Amino acid sequence: IMKFTEHLSAHITPEWRKQYINYEEMKCMLYAAVEQAPSAELVEPDVVTRYFAKFDEQFFHYCDKELAKINTFYSEKLAEATRKFGSLRNELSEAQEDEFRAKEGMFRHRPKILRKRDVPARKIQELKLAFSEFYLSLILLQNYQNLNFTGFRKILKKHDKLLCVDIGAKWRSGNVETSHFYINKDIDRLIQETEATVTQELEGGDRQRAVKRL
């Protein structure tokens, strides 16, 4: 079975590398804490308790920073995607109007229109490509969302297993599962709307062809 560290590095978007959960660093922190812990046979129990309480303070502070980084990046990318979708929709409307005008004009000014007739068709082809590239960027963002959530779930589970506690699980439900990057479903909506737009407006209602193109 592929370890999560390998899975993460195999599936990240390279130019976003620094924006993902630093899973490897968090794993090293956990193993180092366990290895360097004072031996329960040699010291008083409260010494061990204090040691792990201090470690948890540092560990969850690091988790907080990672979560803030991911939330910020996700929000920025989502805002970009929302703007891009709006401008692509506008371009599509304009191209459709041009096409409609060109078709109407063909009957009235046939010679002049013959020279211009391929312009809307070429624009439509460009838009198909633009929507396809945009769709890929949405899938990458959805992937970013899923990988980071899985990273938090796995590292917090590892924390609880190594330290024999349930603090990680509580932190996950109180922080990760209520965070913007996890609960926000706008990316799913944008993916659906893009599929619908390409199907209805660019592929004449043929969903199979639209999905193939995307």
TrEMBL record:
Residues 2-173 form the SPX domain. InterPro entries: SPX_dom. It comes from the Eukaryota. GO terms for cellular component: Golgi apparatus; plasma membrane. Pfam families: SPX. GO terms for molecular function: inositol hexakisphosphate binding. GO terms for biological process: cellular response to phosphate starvation; phosphate ion transport. PANTHER family: SOLUTE CARRIER FAMILY 53 MEMBER 1, XENOTROPIC AND POLYTROPIC RETROVIRUS RECEPTOR 1-RELATED. This is SPX domain-containing protein.
